[in-house]
Amino acid sequence: MRTPGTPAHPCPRPGWDHGPVSSDASVEPGTLLVAAPSLLDANFRRTVVYIIDHRGEGTLGVVLNRPSDVPVDDVLPTWGPHVSEPSAVFVGGPVEQKTALCLAAMRTGEQVDGVSGLIGVRGPVALVDLDADPDVLVPKFRGMRVFAGYAGWDVGQLAGEIDRGDWIVVPALPNDVLAPAEEDLWGRVLRRQGMPLALLATHPGDVKGN
Question: What's the pTM?
């Protein structure tokens, strides 16, 4: 059995090919996959995954709530001073962990369309080209975060995991991509869904511990 969220197409691109209605029909760029309490895979236990791309070839996203101990300064010194606190690289998922992805939330009034170095995901959230000039882009951002690796699913794989009850699909808020490391993002996202999903936020998790 495949580890949830591991295979993926490596190049995120905007858009999504509409196919037959399936369990992942509500998944689109800018939605969240919230790990169900029953999902105990070490890579994804109590995670919140932000979807960047979802199309016929597969799905790609990043885990929002797994900060590492590696400062962004150590790996991307030109971007390090600009990332939101904590200024650490977040572990975006188990795929290609030497690959860095960056998400930014735009300031009010700033547009993504037509700006070189940005690919719009949804609303004010954009994927940032880390080869671009920070001095040009950073003034447009309310905040930004760098992720090492990503989570990905082959065609039909995510639908199967949703059918199995591994993931709960909910809308994202722009602030989710900048959530502080000390915040229980998993619990916060569930609680704001209202009943009955809010009850899941009280789940104690794996009683055997991490």
Answer: 0.85
DSSP element (H, E) containing 16: none
Question: Which tens digit of pLDDT belongs to each residue from 135-159?
Answer: 999 999 999 999 999 999 998 899 9
Cβ count near 167 (within 10 Å): 25
Q: Please name the residue that has the structure tokens 């399936």.
A: 22
CB 198 within 8 Å of CB 37: no
Locate all alpha helices (DSSP H) within the chain, ordered by sequence: 72-75, 134-137, 157-163, 185-191
Give the separation between CA 197 and CA 63, rounded to whole angstroms: 20
pLDDT (tens digit, 9 = 90+) per residue, 45-69? 999 999 999 988 899 999 999 999 9
The answer to whether residues 130 and 118 touch, using CB atoms and an 8 Å cutoff, is no
Identify the sign of the CA torsion 39, 43, 49, 53: negative
Sign of CA dihedral 192, 85, 48, 125: positive
Contact 173, 31 (CB under 8 A): no
- Residues making up the chain, counted from first to last: 210
